[in-house]
Amino acid sequence: MKDIAIATTCLGVQVPHSPFLNETRIERIAAARYEGDEIKGALHVVRPEDRIVEMGAGIGVVGAVAAHQGKPERVVSFEANPALIEHIEALYALNGLEDRICVRNCVVLSDPDAPETVTFHVHASYLGSSLIEPEARRSTAVEVPSTRWESVREEIAPTILICDIEGGELDFLRHADLSGLRAVVMEFHPGAYGREGMRECKRILETAGFAKVEEVSTRLVWTATREV
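Structure for Methyltransferase, FkbM family, as requested:
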């Protein structure tokens, strides 16, 4: 990995250069402000015995920091955007994390009637790429394989869910069995489903026994825990 150019470092994780980084993003990553609320939440709850499912890996920083700092037993990340996968894997390899974290190019769906593939809308900036077709911004539609949440639960037996899927979390929560999870770090996207949709997400978590951890939560990003 000595030929890899390093763009910056985030909490001990080296981040290689990629087409998805610009100067502003590099500065935010270096200051741990890129997805900073998710990172804070993850580091607050992750323990060495944990098995983490990350839905929406982005460029891989959040999952890598959780794997590096929290040293969980296992992290399996899911990312729908195929263009990001090689860069995520390069980040993991650069930091020697391949034995602890991996990424899969697919979408996790909890609806029992979900299709085997789904259309994913890739925006010019990877941020905001989503299963939801944009009304104004241009995007490129790609078909991405899906996997069932129940299958993921059976395989991994996750204890923590980290979720940033650009508006897909409401449909996921409506159908998902959250058994076995003791912590959730989730970003809400009211721009996709409105304030009532965000309130519904929070109600589902609370009904399942999760309580917001105030010191590492915001209106849009919750870290929530429960006894299991």
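The mean pLDDT is 94.
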